[in-house]
Design a protein that fits this description.
By secondary structure, the chain is mainly α. The chain is 50% helix and 0% strand.
Length: 34
């Protein structure tokens, strides 16, 4: 399992939040495809 740096965690958190806000109707499991 990869250990993410703080910046990578922050970027992933922001990207996930933006994606969730943009596609609220999509299941969270869809994020696993990325």
């Amino acid at each position: 399992m990869k250990i993410f740096s703080h910046q990578e965690k922050l970027a992933a958190h922001i990207a996930t939040g933006a994606f969730a806000a943009f596609g609220k109707n999509m299941p969270l499991t869809h994020l696993n495809d990325f």
